[in-house]
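Hi everyone,

Forwarding the result from last night's run.
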Amino acid sequence: MRELALAGADVFRVNFSHGSQADHARTIQAVRRAEVAVGRPLAVLADLQGPKIRLAEFADGVARLKPGQDFRLDMNPTPGDAARIGVRHPEVFAALRVGAMVLLDDGKVRLRVIRHGPDFADTVVEAGDQLSDHKGLNLPNLSIPIPALTEKDRQDLAFALKEGVDWVALSFVQRASDMAELRSLVQGRAAVLAKIEKPAALDALDEILDLCEAIMVARGDLGVELAPEEVPVFQKKLVRAARLRGLPVIVATQMLESMTHSPTPTRAEASDVAGAVYEGADALMLSAESAAGDYPVEAVTMMDRIITRVEQDPRWPELMRAEYPVEDADADALVAAARKASESASTACIAAFTTTGQTALRLARERPLQPILALTPNLSTARRLALTWGVEARVVAEITDPEELARVAVEQAMEIGIAQPGGARVLILAGFPMGSPGAANILRLAHTPRR
């Protein structure tokens, strides 16, 4: 964990689709130890499994299929074979229609429905030759009337909140009510994130964004249910929608997939990572590359190198500013002024004093040229901001005297190394009284000491 953090990782995802709660507890503890070792806040993101629909078991553990053959899905508890398999979700059969496509094992097997009832579906195999136990099932273009939070998810959520995770991600979000249910259970104890991996979520995107604090473009399942050529288009749409609202957005899945077993990525993967940075994503996520791969540190290092190189491109700031909202609120005007002032070559960073993180989030939306130093009295806020583009967060004592802003900002910027002695400029953005969300009303200029 320490090596991954030193290589550039800021957020560690704990995937509740795998492992036990005891395993996850050890992982979270390891992240907290790494946080102390590297001296900066690291976030833990609890990724709930969600209602992932899976096949039951086969009698032999595997079944061989042939394109053109008949194959039945049903609720029979008997182990399956090459002619049928159990699916213990009546909601699947309720959602089906004749002619619908059923995708199994991430689309490796494709079935076409020819008949169906409340507890069965007769299909014909259109592609694929093998299935094994517990493979996933997807119904593209169909909304499955299934709760977003399973009983397992509720138990995992209670455990994750007890362990003090910083973010909670809900899988397979389809409607705004899914996020509303999660928020009611979390009750502000962590920030909530919607994983967009069902096409149905795209139809309710605005309502979903109203109820979350970040989103993830989860291209794995999204790519199963959408045609391949549609995924990049929807990725751009989702990143743009999140940026306009100032919500952090993660792009995930298969970004450096070949580095699971290779020390270097393909050129296409490097371009994919770069493309997400050019689009304005806040964070990029590795999965198998760092969770189970042979070169986890190398994968994080490579992703960090690509991100850094893209942001050195003179065209990158122009792309970031091509589209962002202009609002009349005084706080947004001050944030825009801070971003403009940061363009001076002598500016080292923008120090944003924030209690809830809103001031830093507003600033990150503007994509200033210089780093954002978020200074907060709350460790939970500092950790949550680890997900946000351009933010280096640190915990400081609560400031009650505005005259202390410059001293603390300059000291922290120099301690981290993002401002050097010799008169470097540190822009200061703050709101008084402290603690009012997004109430930035002070913009000051300070300089590091000349020696």
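The chain has three domains: 2-51+147-253, 62-138, 330-447.

Cheers,
N.
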